[in-house]
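Q: My collaborator sent me two sequences in one message, no labels, and asked for predicted structures for both. Can we handle them in order? The first one she listed is below.
A: Yes, handling them in the order given. First sequence, followed by its structure tokens:
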Amino acid sequence: MQQHADETYLNLLQHILNYGVKKEDRTGTGTISVFGYQMRFDLSKGFPLLTTKRIPFKLVASELLWFIKGDTNIRYLLQNNNHIWDEWAFGKWVKSDEYNGPDMTDFGLRAASDEAFANVLQEQMNLFTEKILTDEEFAKNYGDLGPVYGKQWRSWPTEKGETIDQLKKVIEQIKKNPDSRRLIVSAWNPAEVDDMALPPCHSLFQFFVADGKLSCQLYQRSA
């Protein structure tokens, strides 16, 4: 019997609480972590949208469309009232020689424990996002996140100076050779990962066709 998405998700949380180990992370917050856990959802039974936690679906959809477009600049996201990636672009701005506002060193950690600073940060973030929306040249310089997901999905660079549209190619492969075991799209490019604002969390996905049905397996290095 197919489990509801909420039950599957809550089982994962219970598994983490029962068997997870405490680990440090780059944010200083720390995690309780397990490795290699897999969840399965039968999409023929409906979309697995959780109800036990708030899911801003419009943000999920606009971010995915941003990836599919091959875009790497947050301007499109801001135009769709999506602020998921703001802090990564903002970090680039405040480290630049052109920034002359309040000290924003470790702004994420400081805001979590200092309410006064959090208010200052929000003011600066508002100014930044407004300038991204209204100043095309500023957006070009400070809104881009480097070769993140969309770039790798749609324009993976080759050593010959060409690019590979992985998404287009995998769709063609599914149509022409559905039994292929090479129906893979990867966002993890070791040659460019250090140039990305954030290395890809959902780093690879693979398709599988059987009995006229399409399945997809997603691998996340961090979730």
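Q: And the one she listed second?
A: Here it is, processed independently of the first:
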Amino acid sequence: MNMTIEQNSVLLEVNNLKMHFPVSESIFSKSKTVLKAVDGVSFTINRGETFGLVGESGSVKTTTGKCILGIHNPTDGNIIYNGIDITKLSKNEAKKFLREKQMIFQDPYGSLDPRRSAFTIVKDAIVADGHKIPKGELKDKVNSLLELVELDPVIGTRYPHEMSGGQRQRLGIARALACDPKLIVCDEPVSALDVSIQAQIINLFEELQEKMKLTYLFIAHDLAVVRHISDYVGVTYLGKLVEVTDSRELYKNPLHPYTKALLSAIPLTNYEVERKRNRIMLQGDIPSPINTPTGCPFHPRCIYARKECLTCMPPLREISKGHKVACHIVN
């Protein structure tokens, strides 16, 4: 996590992003309902920083990342990348930004072609979209990328099934770096790995960010991981951002009841502190994004909910400098 970045130039600005998917009520019905996967999300990421998106599974996180990468065309809102609103571009105009925005996936095995060797996987990424590089430099480029992610170039002859989970994820990172990206969307990149390997990969992300001036959108449900790597954190719930602030402030002074519940679930290494603290147990499951509650989406599970929470959606407002929260009970 780099909290000392001085330049304030914004690389990515997401404004009121919405991504709604039509869903048929049944195979025999012509009427359709709408799944609100993303419902009015806004945030910015400065160059060289990491913005963490956290929340329970099935929330806004991955869909937001896919909209930023151009995999989905948003229903509404703007995505301004490097000063250009990419939601207004044609497919041909958007192509020139494809290499600058890359994704690292949750499942390193499922995201790698099992028929291609490690060397070929990285090589194919380098020359994708007709990108030209002298043949004499191609092998050196692949090997240098493997070394950059702490893989011995001899592993280039291996196939994904012959590699460990940590090696496969390093290969996925090398493939993303092959395009010389400015922005990387990291979609739960360590959740499928052993805890000991998770720490190594997180350290690698930080080292690469420092060396290559990378900007990350880091998607996760593990707040402990997000705390370690992120400069700023956005907490999501049912398609919306409910709290946004810098990483240190979020853990020191969480304001939204949902954020407090998530933080209380993180196990502590200090036994005495862990034994004495009270965990916040949320009742019920997260509602369906097809049939979202009226008012604040969190009110059915919130012990502090009052009348206005049931009818009026609270705006995401600034409570203190840089600390925004969407909650009626927070003053």
